[in-house]
Amino acid sequence: MGSFEALGLNPWIVKQCQMVGIENATPIQKECIPQVLAGKDCIGCAKTGSGKTLAFALPLLQVLSEDPYGIFALVLTPTRELAYQIADQFQIMGKPIGLRQCVIVGGMDMMRQGMELSKRPHVVISTPGRLYDHLGSCATFTLKKIKFLVIDEADRILSGDFDEQLKRIFEALPEQRQNLLFSATMTDTLDKVRKVAKKEMFLHETK
Ligand code: ADP
Ligand code: MG
């Protein structure tokens, strides 16, 4: 049995991984995927390039495939480039289930993004600033039913620079949700992270 299957992922995801030459899970993926599938919050800490994106994207896609419902997940990441990188991986892996995703970042037309958001994407991948703008400008746009909040590069997102936007964004989220935080470094931001999650946290260090 391949290592992804052993983590509890369905055959269609394992096949999709194989298609792009990914056979064995990285340590952070081994730690996090079963936790996410079990419905738990998760803090994943592993160095850059260790496969953190698929550590959240794969289990999230599996849960989505079993219960598609409105905007399902919000992924926050600090930069436009990272948002597109994450979107690429979601797109490839989510193809078999017809994943609809939407990238909401600065420098693009607000109206066009508003249109994309109105098409009921499953996953919204966004930088905090632009998401904040949409929450303020569009009355019908809601994140109240998301099941997953993913904070990628959590140390940067929670460094303080985005606090004003985050306050508004967190107000727009439901209390009940699964929180998945990923970071290359996780030091003094940890307290803040715990506050964000408000729930039981699991710390996976694979450095
Ligand atoms: P980071 O931990 O910095 O977020 P990424 O998730 O962007 O790293 O992954 C870095 C690269 O590794 C990507 O190109 C991704 O496709 C690849 N990758 C992810 N998981 C695996 C795996 N299990 N085996 C081989 N390559 C992988
Ligand atoms: Mg990353």
UniProtKB/TrEMBL annotation:
Q: Which GO terms describe its molecular function?
A: ATP binding; hydrolase activity; nucleic acid binding; RNA helicase activity
Any one cellular component term from GO for this entry?
cytosol
Q: Which family does it belong to?
A: Belongs to the DEAD box helicase family.
Give the originating organism: Cloeon dipterum
Full-protein interval shown: 1 to 207 of 459
Q: Where is this motif: Q motif?
A: 2-30
Annotated keywords:
ATP-binding, Helicase, Hydrolase, Nucleotide-binding
Q: Could you tell me which residue ranges the DEAD-box RNA helicase Q domain spans?
A: 2-30
Q: Start and end of every Helicase ATP-binding domain? A: 33-204
What GO biological process terms are annotated to this protein in UniProt?
A: regulation of gene expression
Q: What is this protein called?
A: RNA helicase
Q: Which domain of life is it from?
A: Eukaryota
